[in-house]
Amino acid sequence: MSILSWSKSLRVGPLRSALDAGDKILLPPSVLEEFMAATGTPAQPYPDPFESYMPRIATPPPHQPRPTLPSPLTFQILNPKTRFINHGGVKEFSSDEGICHLPAWMLNSLDLKEGDTITLRLKELPKGTWARFRSMSANSRDILDFRAVFESHLRANYNTLTKGDILSVRHGNKRYEFLVEELKPADAVCVTDTDLEVDIEPLAEEAVAAASMAPNGRGVVGGLLDKQVVVVGEVAAGNVEEGEYRYFRLKDIDHGQGQGLRIKIAVESGDIDLLISSDPHPTLTSHIWSSLTTTPTHQVHVPPTDTSFATITDLHIGVHAFKGPAAFTLSTSYASVSDPNVPHTLSSSSVDPNANQPGYSRCANCGSWVPERTIALHEGFCARNNIKCEKCEKVMKKGSEEAERHWHCDICDKSGDISEKDKHIDHFHMPRDCSCGTLTESYPVLALHRRTTCPDRLIMCRYCHNLLPQGDPPTNAHDILAGLHAHESYCGSRTIVCHKCGQPIPIKDVAMHARVHDAERQRRTTPPLCSNMVCVRQAAAAPHNVLRLCQTCFGPFWVPGEDQGHMKLLQTVARRIHLQLTTGCGNKWCRNKNCATSTGTPQEANMAASTLIPLITSLRQALASGSRPELYLCVDEATTRRRFLAEVLEQDLAGKYAIEWCVKGLEAEREDLDRAKTWVEGNAPRK
């Protein structure tokens, strides 16, 4: 069937930010109506019941096949002035009549602006088989799994790819640009429901050099390419330009030493921020530990109990210049209890020893405790020379530079030198937008949001094992209790067939379903074996089988009629065992410890009787108490071999399973030890 031939001219509408992530456009509802009218099949009339009785005058013309629509709907988009062409899919038929809304990047590629005229043509594109992308972002090496990133981004946002397009791929809180260099089998392809092989080309060296010299990219690129590696105890010096970053990687951390890490920076010039994270390239908007104050020395203590630190051996340190150029010296060491940044109990020496002591009074101005005999002299001198801040009660010298530059934040309780004001307001009281749309009140709050609840935070999915955004929190109690993120909730809803029960099970419920099978397995009863310790057959359920032997072993001991006190049975068993001890069974494969053939040492009649007495006594007691007796009676070769294999399998399984289940596994797998071991581990309850 042929594809519908359709084209139309529309005007470009205003930008819609919701379209910028992909290639999908908004069309007016009339376009959908045109498609339905052109491809709809007219209704057929009901058959006439009298038609077979009426003569046919003329045969109606055969029904002409209607054209079809491509799936998905894809369009060629043409700028009639420049003849530039691009392609895209359709998101909705919800725009105003005569208006088409395009993504911003598509307007740029077609050299269009709002109000211009475009020509749309319905076009079926071939399925893409291969694509080559060239990175246009210097930090694209941060992406660990390109396959997962492109798969999720293209599947969610794109129907088509056109050679020469620049894709803006969002990964976590960042965006990376890639140029579509080559496509197969055509220069424009459909990427929906197809397997697309992708090659990634790195950023050209000259582009890296150009980016490193750009005012807005120098610090990031330089930090990426020149990250310095240091070890604990090493001192490193560096410089950084204003607004840029300098990165260090602290490797080979030994968690067995000290009370965590102490990271210190001495500022020689400028004003810097110290940022630390377990992820590469920490920034003001994305870090775990930081020091964002204006001080000549920055010091951060990373505690050993912090979950973000306890399981890693490398840390990444970022130095940001708020004012520059800045020079600094970085040093790292293992923290000790005596370090000022390590929490510990305050000693009594931190309290004035003269406080509230007899003979001492407190100065109303500076708060010092002085002898009562000199309090008047002290207060007069203190009032003339010192001034106390009413907010923080800090005592300063009147007319001093410190007093003139003393400053308090109007929003929080921060105080210090007036030179700290601009940085404090910028870092702690300026609203900051997250890529997910959340508005936070400061850099520290934004960094906390990005590493905890941000939907764009990257996680390693426990089901597909791809690095993907975690999404919004799940809404059902099951997923919340399981600690799943939105993507894991969606990804874990896929089903697989249980190989034991054949039921379709969601992936996220596999562990719980397996525990159900384990509980059922543990409730299984052990199949009763013959009480003959050399036999592996199941015990027979005959009414007079008090010895709990199998039918084969019990046959010679069957006693007809009444047997008071099992005397006849015991005599028959005694004769059988006595014969084994003195003569043996004569079978070379015998492994019965109470058989002369197996042991190779036939006993005399009297000695055999001495050996037999405790055996029969034990048997009589077992019969009297109703417990399971233990007998050693010679059996055939096949049974002996199976018993030997069962004992080998029991030993191989470290005695975790009863020998009865080892026997059953050998029966199920036809005495194949490897397969029997697998069967026992999958079906038998543990001891």
TrEMBL record:
What InterPro entries does this protein map onto? AZUL (IPR032353), AZUL_sf (IPR042556), DUF7590 (IPR056012), TRAFD1-XIAF1_Znf (IPR049439), Ufd1-like (IPR004854), Ufd1-like_Nn (IPR042299), UFD1_N1 (IPR055417), UFD1_N2 (IPR055418)
User: The DUF7590 domain covers which part of the protein?
Assistant: 232-326
Residues covered by the TRAFD1/XAF1 zinc finger domain: 484-516
A cellular-component GO term for this protein: VCP-NPL4-UFD1 AAA ATPase complex
> Where is each Ubiquitin fusion degradation protein UFD1 N-terminal subdomain domain found?
69-126, 127-202
Name the GO terms of the biological process aspect: ERAD pathway; ubiquitin-dependent protein catabolic process
UniProt keyword annotation of Ribosomal protein present: no
Point out the signal peptide segment. none
Keyword terms: Ubl conjugation pathway
One GO molecular function term of this record is: polyubiquitin modification-dependent protein binding
* Ubiquitin-protein ligase E3A N-terminal zinc-binding domain mapped to chain residues: 575-612
The entry sums up its family as follows: Belongs to the UFD1 family.
Designated name of the protein: Ubiquitin fusion degradation protein UFD1-domain-containing protein
